[in-house]
Amino acid sequence: MVHARFEEGYGLAWGDLDSALAAARRGEETGFAELWHALHPPLLRYLRAVVGDAAEDVASETWLQAAKDVRGYRGDAAGFRVWLFRVARHRALDELRKASRRKEDNGDVAEYVTDWPAPDDTERAAAEREDTERALRLIARLPKDQAEAVLLRVVAGLDVAQTAKVLDKRDGAVRIAAMRGLKRLAAILAEQQADGEAGRDVDDAGGMEETGETGSGRNGRGSRTVKGAEYG
Question: What's the pLDDT tens digit per position in 116-129?
């Protein structure tokens, strides 16, 4: 469910992005705009989870470097996406180091997950924003290596090899970190679901106790009948 939510709205197909990249290399603004339109949303979601309120600034710095270096880039659109996220990650780490100096913080991902404005006020957009925030907050509860692996695999849509290039790790290490992170997320979600069901059971029992619906009502005090049955 989380994976499907994040994959919505990726925009152009890779063949189209190859064409856009070629146009951007030639200095055509429309080509670069197409790259931005397709890659900026997942990039910004990734940065939101890593640096919080500084995500817009880090994203802007990343795209400024991309605009400067795109003419010299040699590779396809899939490789460009990996390169872009590498640039973003390095700039995000710089931001975390600056933030840790300012706040005497350890720079863990969980410390920098914050809310961000919805693109508009429609009910659907608000619901999607809430789902995205919840998913990012869950991911932020993971150890940093697992969180980054899951973010790049799920939010950015990179495969294992591409994620390994961004993180400068071996494929096997990324695969293990992502697998452990997803298993831990599943455990967290199962725990939350169990807690929610337990809470509903308590509410239902409380409702019956208050209304006295389970007693025979001969003495008009159904709640005492429930309590008496409960405690023997």
Answer: 333 444 444 445 55
Cα-based angle 184, 186, 188 (whole degrees, multiple of 5): 70
Nearest Cα residue to 112 out of 121, 102, 120, 122: 102
Q: Based on DSSP, count helices (H) and strands (E) in the chain, helices before strands.
A: 10, 0
What is the reported pTM?
Answer: 0.65
**Tens digit of each residue's pLDDT (9 = 90 or more) over 20-77:** 999 999 999 999 999 999 999 999 989 988 888 899 999 999 999 999 999 999 999 9
In degrees, rounded to 5, the angle at the alpha carbon of residue 174 between the alpha carbons of residues 171 and 175 is: 85
Residue 222 near residue 204 (C-beta atoms within 8 A): no
Rounded to the nearest 5 percent, the helix, strand and coil shares of the chain are 80, 0, 20
Residue type, 186: A
What is the C-alpha to C-alpha distance for residues 167 and 204, in angstroms, rounded to an integer? 49
* Coil/strand/helix, residue 199: helix
Polymer length in residues for the chain: 232
102-111: long-range pairs with CB below 8 Å, 24+ = 108/144, 109/49, 109/50, 109/139, 109/140, 109/142, 109/144, 109/147, 109/148, 110/140, 110/141, 110/147
Amino acid letter, 190: A
CA distance 60 to 66: 10
